[in-house]
What does this fold into?
Amino acid sequence: MTYKPTRYDADESIAAVLDDVARAHRILELEGHGDMSMGHLSYRDPWGRGLWLKRGNLALSEVEGDDFILIDFDGAVLQGTGLRHIEWPLHAEIMRARPDVNFVGHSHAHYATVLGAAEGEKLMPYNNHGVWFAEHDVPRYDKTAHIITEVHRGVEVAEALGEAQAIFLANHGVAFVGATVEEVTLTGIFLEKASRFQVDMRSAGLTPITPDPEEIKEKFARIYPKKAQGNFWMFFNRRLERYEEHFGIGMTTDIQH
Ligand SMILES: [Zn+2]
It folds into this structure.
């Protein structure tokens, strides 16, 4: 299928958000979420028509503002051209279950997938990134190791996610959500960083210190106020720009791992 760019019926407000969502994909690639052409983010359509989902057969590092299709909550393509990712029910069912969520991400980030595949392993606030998840924890969906291509599986994942910001999909990957593009991006980044920290501690055979839960609540409020979240988002954007000035859009990050 030949892909033809569209500008979303000239709705510039949607196009502007999708430019940011495209950058979020490329930032996540730099943060260890890339896995060939797998992984995708979606954006809830502000007109209630459904969701804008990254089109298929593109690496996270290759996504630009035109690379989205609008699907309804039953998966019918309403706008845009290109392949529809077969894991669309994951996005649609999380959005159906969570009116507070405007953005959903899914990837096979390495360290988070390692932790997700480990029996009984709970993500802990051992470092600052882990503190992001301290309130709701990161639940694990382990009813299947399959990818989430069926609606009933999407419903199960949404149920297991509950009010949390992220979920481990055992032997598969992760999903993460946000009300804003900043939030979903930071959630994806911090999930991988906190998982990496925990895997490193376990690999080194060190005994972790478990911080006091009350102190962790205060710590969250102190290190992650909205203003700081905006600053972190801008940092990751500047970093992306410097990287792309050098390598252009589309470079995968195997060189970093
Ligand atoms: Zn997947």
Observations:
- Residues 181-204 form the longest helix (24 residues).
- The chain has one domain: 8-256.
- The helical segments are 12-33, 88-97, 110-116, 128-131, 151-161, 181-204, 213-223, 226-247.
